[in-house]
Please model this.
Amino acid sequence: MTPFGAKLRQLRDIRGVTLSQMAEELDVSAAYLSALEHGRRGRPTFAFTQRIIGYFNVIWDDAEELQKLAAISDPRVTLDTAGLSPKATQFANRIARDIHRLDEAALDELDAVLDKRIERKSRKAR
Model:
């Protein structure tokens, strides 16, 4: 499931809306919505995300959050390491090979390390 898919399911659950009901209102198939929730489809377009925002009458921060989640919810990520160091290419391939072995705690840990390193580098650049 993608971050967007998890949020979409949460919105449906909170509002008591079935996949079929939502699909009919948005003029898409329930199979498409299910695939979108489960990460078997690419990330939704900006226009479709706007339709979902309108459907749920989501405003302000919640609408912005949904757009951000859509942007980071491509289940088929491609990393281009051309022009980077051999170590970067090795690391990208390692992540691709081993990500399925990591639990949520390990992913949170790695995410925190990356955030810390990027923040440190941006402070040095100032």
Notes: The mean pLDDT is 93. Residues 49 and 67 are 7 Å apart (CA to CA).
